[in-house]
Design goal:
two-stranded antiparallel sheet; about 30% helix; Rossmann fold
């Protein structure tokens, strides 16, 4: 049997950036899976807080240069790469001058939520799949973490479903308690749309808020995982609506075993 290929997608990873528990999870689990013989790739945004010189990021010219549509705008995609030396893991970074070269992550220095965080998430999700295509690396599982990655399961089931690179790919969506109160303005449906996606498929996103992103991730992922034992009421309500493919691993003694079994089951 060939090695299972797992793509991890998240907003952050230690040691490059840590603002929440996501960073530690995405640092530890891929290494554990690699040690069990799985082939791993990791993709995160290149937020401005990440020091390129210190972390030895360098641009991958052969992967960079395509444009990603966000509504009527097209933004150039830049791909950078760095290694976690202690783990022999490579991390790919999605970059764009307009969206990611700021000194802060999701809030400005006055702690105001960026109005274009929806566009940053959409650009990131689309950019991830285009980068994987350019890599020529077909993942068996795409493990999406937190709200910023929530559109990837939808894109895999629609725009990319007949692409040879993704035709057998399954998705896992892990949900965290990283909610925000902001409601996005503008036509989020238009921004998120891609080929083979009609407005009805994006209906969950119409609320243009945190819950909308989580709902659409849960609706299209092949497996939904609750990361925290204690989720907010609104999060619990969403998760309770997806019982048929929801997995509670928060209380698991050995997360590595549970995820290993989940990946193997989905790819089987």
């Amino acid at each position: 049997m060939s090695k299972l290929r797992i793509l991890y997608v998240a907003s952050e990873i230690n040691p490059f950036l840590k603002t929440s528990e996501v960073a530690d999870f995405v640092r530890k689990l891929p290494q554990a899976m690699q040690e069990r013989g799985m082939e791993i790739r990791i993709l995160v945004p290149r937020f401005g807080l990440i020091n390129e010189r210190k972390n030895r990021l360098h641009e991958v010219v052969r992967l960079s240069g395509i444009n990603i549509a966000v509504g009527d705008d097209e933004k150039p995609l830049i791909i950078k790469v760095a290694s976690i030396p202690t783990a022999k893991l490579q991390v790919y970074f999605i970059d764009n001058e307009d969206y990611f070269q700021r000194k802060y992550v999701f809030h400005d220095k006055e702690n105001r939520f960026y109005d274009d965080n929806d566009e940053r998430a959409i650009f990131f999700c689309k950019g991830v799949l285009e980068t994987v295509k350019k890599l020529g690396w077909a993942p068996d599982i795409v493990h999406c973490n937190d709200w910023m990655t929530a559109l990837i399961p939808l894109y895999l089931k629609t725009t990319y479903k007949n692409d040879p690179m993704f035709k057998d790919t399954k998705s896992v969506f892990t949900v965290y308690n990283n909610s925000f109160e902001h409601r996005f303005e503008g036509d989020i449906i238009e921004k998120a749309r891609m080929m083979d996606i009609d407005d009805e498929m994006l209906a969950e996103l119409k609320t243009a808020d945190f819950q909308g992103f989580i709902r659409i991730g849960c609706a299209y992922a092949d497996a939904v995982v609750r990361a925290d034992e204690e989720s907010s009421e609104s999060l619990n309500a969403i998760l309770d609506d997806t019982p048929e493919h929801k997995f509670d691993l928060a209380e698991a003694d050995d997360l590595t075993d549970r995820y290993y079994n989940l990946y193997t089951q989905l790819a089987g």
